[in-house]
Design brief:
The chain has helices spanning 4-33, 39-58, 62-79, 88-107, 116-128, 146-152, 157-168, 185-197, 229-236; strands at 172-181, 201-207, 216-225, 242-248. With 265 residues, it is of the alpha+beta class. Strand 2 (201-207) and strand 3 form a beta hairpin. The longest helix is centred in the N-terminal third of the chain and has 30 residues, at 4-33. The protein starts with a helix and ends in a 17-residue tail after the last strand.
Length: 265
């Protein structure tokens, strides 16, 4: 008979597997439709796999945790890459096979161990394979604005990848400085983030602000958007937060040096 702890473990893991499955489906649908891919799909799937790995490991479910880790590594590679540089059909085939195996293992860890080594090997092979385009854009330290260089020091590897991708795609990179009353920020900050998410990709949210005000807390929210920065600034004034949008320039690559004496074409 299952204990209350066992029931809670099953319920929590099923929820995580549902989240993983839903985001993988959205991710695949976007790729098959050939539309712009929302990075949240892959990133949310990665987070779910990461949580499954940690949660099942905490309960001593070694096989579940091991498979979830293999899935996590592959999803981490994909969220920092362009899925179209892979054989996407093969990638989704192995992703959904791993998801199905996780569900089987949750029901019966003994019966679900068949072909587990083969599945882990396939996950690893795709995770380390070379692709036609680099997973990580080259950093270009020259030609950046100081504020952009400082920002990169606070970003995670994934956030920096998303920043570089959005700049490469010509989107506006905007910093929003917002301050909230201490008593209300836990409500007003999520409301502002939800409002922004419908208009832009949120790259990161950092504590801090333009200046310190008593009984207020500040945040800097960095976004990428196609919207006009001036129009966005006007819209932000309609919210309770004190906000300012600042457009940053694009990252510029290093100029190629021409050899002395070489003729310009």
């Amino acid at each position: 008979m299952a204990t209350q702890v066992d029931q809670e473990f099953l319920a929590e893991t099923r929820d995580l597997l549902d989240t993983l499955g839903q985001n993988l489906l959205r991710y695949e649908e976007a790729v098959l439709a050939g539309v712009k891919i929302n990075p949240d799909f892959c990133n949310s799937a990665f987070r779910a796999a990461h949580n499954i790995r940690g949660f099942t490991g905490m309960f001593g479910k070694e096989t579940l945790s091991k498979l979830a880790y293999g899935l996590e590594i592959l999803l981490d590679r994909l969220r920092k890459s362009d899925i179209r540089s892979f054989d996407s059909a093969s990638v989704f085939e192995i992703l959904f096979e791993a998801l199905g195996k996780l569900n089987t293992l949750l029901v019966s860890e003994t019966k679900g161990t068949k072909n587990i080594d083969r599945l882990l090997k396939k996950l690893q092979q795709i995770s380390v394979c070379k692709v036609t385009s680099a997973a990580h854009p080259q950093r270009t330290n020259k030609g950046k604005k100081d504020t952009l260089r400082e920002l990169q020091g606070f970003l995670t590897e994934y956030e920096e990848f998303r920043l570089q991708e959005n700049i490469k795609n010509g989107l506006h990179i905007i910093k929003i400085s917002a301050q909230f009353d201490l008593a209300k920020f836990d409500i007003e900050l999520p409301e502002l983030l939800a409002w922004l998410k419908n208009r832009a990709e949120i790259i990161t949210t950092l504590p801090g602000g333009k200046e310190t005000v008593i009984n207020k807390i500040g945040f800097e929210i960095w976004i990428a958007t196609n919207e006009d920065p001036n129009g966005l600034t006007v819209s932000l004034k309609e919210h309770n937060a004190i906000a300012e949008a600042v457009k940053l320039g694009k990252l510029k690559g290093k100029k190629k040096k021409t050899k002395k004496g070489a003729k310009k074409k």
